[in-house]
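User: Teach me something about this protein's shape.
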Amino acid sequence: MGLGEQLLSELRTNLPQIIYKGGKIVLLILLFWVIWKLGKSLIQRLTQPLERVEDASSSGRVRTIRALIGSIFSLIMGFVLLLMILDILGIKTTAILGAAGVVGVAVGLGTQTFVRDAFYGFLIVIEDQFREGDIVTIGGITGIVEKMTFRTTNIRGEDGKLYILSNSSITQVCNHSRGGLTIYQDISFSHEDGKEKIEGMLREVSDRLSNLLGDNLLSPPRLETIVTFDSTKTTFRLSLVVHPSKRREGEMFFKEVLRDVCLERGLKLS
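Assistant: First, the predicted structure itself:
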């Protein structure tokens, strides 16, 4: 009997078993596909409350969370499906699971830092501690968050240097981008300058800063309090609120415009 005839004979003999196992595999794949689709839908629904209608930028954070959870879910589903298909084909999965356990322990011991960084990165994203583009202070470093991954955070410092921080090392964050940044300026005037002159000066300063900063001027200059006074002068504390990304420009323009307006209006600086 030739090889072809032998193979044909084996096929006729085992055809019912092949059809039976093939059918089981197809049904199993369809079942897992339905579970996978339902799981994706459930992830979508569970993460929906994280989206804030009034905050359009939150959609990017939610997409990141969905992608992470979806990847983990798909990986688990694929691994379980593979084991069940192998079992249907009569391949023992005990050895595979044992090997996976040994490899898992070895990988776990060697990647503890990586796992810890990824876990803290996930918490940073899900708790919305900061996002790309935010101005933050972390560990004494102040700058703009250029890039975030689940393992590291890249910050472009005020000195222009790029700082790469592991997420597990981030224990305290000051996020300057949540709300405006308040700039204070103390200025002293002679007692000869009345309140009306100072208020008029502030209105002029506000108009000029509005032209210079535009929408980045979140709140116009105002008189906060009297810091101190003596027999010749009174020192006032002024403030204005700008977008955090315009801190340096705001400080510079505030001082320059204050100086120019005061000189133009004849106010005596002390």
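Now, about its shape. The radius of gyration is 33 Å. The longest strand covers residues 217-229. If you'd like, I can walk through any region in more detail.
User: That's plenty for now, thanks!
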